[in-house]
Design a protein that fits this description.
This protein is α/β, with parallel strands linked by helices. About 40% of the residues lie in helices and about 20% in strands. The structure holds pyridoxal-5'-phosphate. Pyridoxal-5'-phosphate binds next to helix 11 and helix 14. It comes from Mesoterricola sediminis.
């Protein structure tokens, strides 16, 4: 398949965020990827296989859990939790990883390249590739490999190769650079599975489309359980994939949409990862979006207790929804997120991922009577952080 023009603009909102800022060598693979994606969505065989894998391998639909004891403590009438923590491998990442791995196989690719920060996306890709019989190489910064050793072990058990990245700060930003470089060198045999609604078009579109299963299920589940829509829909925002996945099916409804960003441990540059407000429009990793940068345009350092939210840019579609006023962005500090996690543990017996805890932390501030929260992942991976911080 050789495409010669994109079918979708890949631009979002009044500021034209998104786009495709990729090296010349990647343009044809990106054009072909969009064409394959559009064709797959319209192919009943692809849809049938995707639905079957989501049901029998991923464990969908994930439950919608009422949280009455949490609601009472927060002074909210109703809180509903969309339980992506119960999806296979422990977070929403598997929805996208599995769907893109199916797309890769359909395109005749034998190998998958991925990047990972905390390791959740890498584990999801490694699992999906094992399931589908694809070779998998995951690029990961050396610092993250040391911090997230159990996830490195999980990826290797699933047969993936974990490639250490030693450039720069040796974390996610450099891992993305390295994965893009590896893909450019091998794009006829390999597919690159990007882990969030980021990167050059068509990746943001692919990822939010495959993740929107979260919101489609949740919308139907909450209508059935409560008989009406919630006043507010809340999710944490790293790159924006679980947030968009939950919110996109509610865009045309009269509900408040809220993204919780990482407020870290301070408001100065380098102390947080809140892009809405302090961020300015710039280009990173192939797309134009809100970006934490200094006066000269250098990407700023970020800080967050949660690795999954610790990224200097926000995906272009979610950033556009924030700039255009449809999505409200709130911040939760490290301390507030820890408190949110402790409250959910004690009231409902659910250990949330540190990322999801940022969503929990803003619930009480909304003044809403009923809230749907996307619980993006489980907290087993964060146990040592919780122990150190909460003295558990
Ligand atoms: C990766 C991750 C996130 C952040 O990524 P998004 O693309 O913003 O969803 C949030 N929660 C969990 C559990 C994650 O693993």
């Amino acid at each position: 398949m050789t495409a010669t023009a994109f079918l979708h603009s890949g631009r979002y909102g009044a500021h034209g965020l998104g786009g495709c800022y990729a090296p010349e060598t990647l343009m044809q693979p990106l054009l072909d990827l969009e064409a394959a994606f559009v064709a797959a969505l319209e192919d009943p065989d692809f849809q049938r296989e995707l639905q079957a894998e989501l049901r029998t391998f991923v464990g969908r639909p994930t439950p919608l859990t009422p949280a009455p004891r949490l609601a009472r403590e927060l002074g909210i009438a109703e809180v509903w939790l969309k339980r992506e923590d119960l999806a296979h491998t422990g977070a929403h990442k598997i929805n996208n990883a599995l769907a893109q791995a199916l797309l890769a196989r359909r395109m005749g690719r034998e190998e998958v390249i991925a990047e990972t920060g905390a390791g959740q996306h890498g584990v999801a890709c490694a699992a999906a590739c094992a399931r589908l019989g694809l070779r998998c190489t995951v690029y990961m910064g050396e610092v993250d490999m040391a911090r997230q050793a159990p996830n490195v072990a999980r990826m290797r058990l699933f047969g993936a190769e974990v490639a250490p990245v030693s450039a720069g700060s040796r974390t996610l930003k450099e891992a993305v650079n390295e994965a893009l470089r590896a893909w450019a060198g091998n794009c006829h045999r390999a597919h690159y599975i990007l882990g969030s609604a980021l990167g050059p078009h068509p990746f943001p579109l692919l990822v939010r489309t495959f993740q929107s299963v979260i919101g489609r299920e949740a919308r139907a589940q909450v209508l059935e359980a409560a008989g009406r829509l919630p006043e507010a829909v809340v999710a944490c925002a790293g790159g924006g994939s679980n947030g968009l996945g939950l919110m996109v099916p509610f865009l045309d409804d009269a509900v408040r949409l809220v993204a919780a960003e990482a407020g870290g441990h301070g408001t100065d540059p380098g102390q947080h990862a809140a892009r809405v407000g302090p961020g300015r429009i710039g280009v990173l990793h192939g797309c134009r979006s809100l970006l934490l940068q200094d006066e000269a345009g250098w990407t700023s350092d970020t800080a967050s207790i949660s690795a999954g939210l610790d990224y200097p840019s926000l995906g272009p579609e979610l950033a556009a929804l924030c700039l255009d006023g449809r999505v409200e962005a709130l911040r939760a500090t490290d301390a507030e997120a820890l408190e949110g996690a402790r409250r959910l543990c004690r009231t409902e017996g659910i250990l949330p991922a540190l990322e999801s805890s940022h969503g929990l932390a803003v619930l009480g501030r909304l003044g809403a009577r009923s809230v749907l929260l996307g619980l993006s992942g489980r907290g087993d991976k964060d146990l040592s952080t919780y122990q150190a911080a909460l003295g558990a």
